[in-house]
Design brief:
Number of strands: 18
Strand content: 15-25%
Shape: globular
Number of helices: 15
Oligomer: single chain
Bound molecules: nicotinamide-adenine-dinucleotide
CATH superfamily of the largest domain: Aldehyde Dehydrogenase, Chain A, domain 1
Number of domains: 2
Helix content: 25-40%
Length: 478
């Protein structure tokens, strides 16, 4: 398979270089070739998106909705094909990947329905015979920059609300999710999405990402990725006064109190920490356990980890696959080696039968490190979690908040008063009791605080606020 750009309704193979993509589950298998774009392709996408805006923004919400419903239906038909390409391209296990594509289908349907929902308020005027009201209007051309770890759901949770609000889109996916992006856009194109409404430009962030941010007339930018890149995006957008949102890294904590139901808790902590090989921004990467159950927790964790199966992403029985790429492997392994040198290894799980040469990393839980240690403070973005002890709820919540990040946090307890204190005091955009840190539903707002986010929210109704402008209208009919 080869990647292609889709610009103004035309398929274009750019020629600014190629990258051969190998299957991270089996490095002997070439999955496809990426064709990289240069500045000229970004410019073409700008022309196409701004031309298409003139007609798309004038369509009724019902017409835009009909396109989103068709995209959803087409995606559902091709669910298995797209999931398989993504699993082979970035290593997410096929069962998880199918669930992710279905989430994309649901997101499209959710935002399609917004096309015919009320989009403003009537606000009583102080003057007689004046109708005062607000309405949402589209912004214009929106730049969408996405990471590789949710190659289908994250792009759709940006593209769908952007389109239903009447904007047109230039989408730059992550390099290591570009085959998936090409296939997804192929599905949308076949479903009749009008030319120029969605434009796909494939290439390196450092090259075309910067051209998009610095040179294109954009009316909003929605970015998800690392905190370092997100801060750069925010700086450029602030300088150019472009509306932006940045969803970035996390170092999510799960607190386990003495009264937690440990059977349920352990399985949610393993899932939060190691599904997708820990490559979720909401992954559980700090496990804070109250002293009274620490030993029992460790004993049960070690036992449960012995049945966690690691293997080829296309094997539907595996719990976790490899990490996504060579650079991911190198980066995560530097933390594994740090843990081996400086921490106590509580458990290194990941039972694997026969596996090919790939970017596999056994899921690991480390302990006995200071709270300021890089294993406790830095986003690892792999199957590595750190265990910390707390003497009581107060210390646990203070450890939970001792991070620059603030995306998601969980508490496991059967005490309602601690549950409510946690919901108030945990410094995170998503706070969850007796639920894993990952897995926020598509119809609910998603986003973080502190260095995890620029403080707006994605998904649910919150996305409509980002992708539209509120106009205040007044009509005198006296
Ligand atoms: P990344 O920051 O390396 O890349 C993200 C995107 O930005 C890619 O498309 C990349 O090509 C592009 N990019 C890179 N440099 C750029 C530049 N100078 N200008 C414009 N674009 C540029 O992140 P990644 O490795 O793809 O993803 C992993 C990160 O994403 C982790 O930190 C993870 O926590 C974060 N993430 C956050 C959320 C969230 O909602 N908070 C969700 C998923 C992933």
């Amino acid at each position: 398979m080869s990647s292609q750009n889709w610009i103004g309704g035309e398929w274009v193979t750019p020629n600014a270089g190629t990258i051969v993509i190998k299957n991270p589950s089996n490095l002997n298998e070439e999955v496809g070739v990426l064709h990289l774009s240069d500045a000229s392709h970004v410019r073409q996408a700008e022309d196409a998106a701004s031309t298409a805006f003139n007609s798309w923004s004038r369509q009724t919400g019902a017409v835009r909705a009909s396109h989103l419903y068709k995209m959803a239906a087409a995606l559902e038909v091709k669910l298995d094909d797209l999931a398989m390409i993504a699993s082979k391209e970035m290593g997410k296990p096929i069962t998880e990947m199918r669930g992710e594509v279905m989430r994309g289908v649901n997101l499209l349907r959710y935002y399609a329905a917004e096309g015919v929902r009320a989009n403003g308020q009537v606000i009583p005027s102080s003057e007689a015979d004046v109708l005062q009201f607000t309405k949402r209007t589209p912004l214009g051309v929106v730049g969408i920059i996405t990471p590789w770890n949710f190659p289908v759901a994250i792009p759709i949770w940006k593209i769908a609300p952007a389109l239903i609000c009447g904007n047109t889109v230039i989408w730059k996916p992550a390099e290591f999710a570009s085959l998936t992006a090409s296939k997804m856009v192929e599905i949308f194109a076949a479903a009749g999405l009008p030319e120029g409404t969605l434009n796909l430009v494939i290439g390196k962030g450092s090259k075309i990402g910067d051209v998009l941010l610095e040179q294109v007339t954009l009316h909003a930018v929605s970015f998800t990725g690392s905190t370092a890149t997100g801060q750069h995006v925010a700086e450029v957008c602030a300088r150019r006064n472009i509306k932006y949102q940045t969803e970035m890294g996390g170092k999510n904590a799960a607190i386990v109190l003495n009264d937690a139901n440990l059977d349920k808790t352990i399985s949610m902590i393993i899932s939060g920490g190691f599904r997708s090989a820990g490559q979720k921004c909401t992954a559980t990467s700090r496990i804070i356990v109250e002293n009274g159950i620490y030993d029992r927790f460790v004993e049960m964790l070690i036992k449960a980890m012995s049945s966690v199966k690691m293997g080829d992403s296309l094997d539907s029985s595996v719990y976790l696959g490899p990490v996504a790429s060579e650079s991911q492997h190198k980066s995560v392994m530097s933390y594994v080696n740090l843990a081996r040198e400086q921490a106590e290894i509580v458990v290194e799980g990941g039972r694997s039968e026969s596996i090919n040469e790939g970017y596999y990393i056994r899921p690991l839980v480390a302990a006995s490190v200071d709270v300021n240690h890089p294993l406790v403070q830095e986003e690892i973005f792999g199957p590595v979690a750190t265990l910390l002890k707390a003497s009581d709820f107060e210390e646990a919540i203070s450890l939970c908040n001792r991070t620059v990040f603030g995306l998601s946090a969980s508490l496991f307890t059967s005490d309602l008063s601690y549950a409510h204190r946690f919901l108030d005091e945990a410094q995170a955009g998503m706070v969850r009791v007796n639920q894993e840190t990952a897995g926020v539903e598509y119809q609910a707002p998603f986003g973080g605080v502190k260095m995890s986010s620029s403080h707006s929210r994605e998904q649910g109704q919150a996305a409509l606020d980002f992708y539209s402008e509120i106009k205040t209208c007044a009509v005198s009919y006296a």
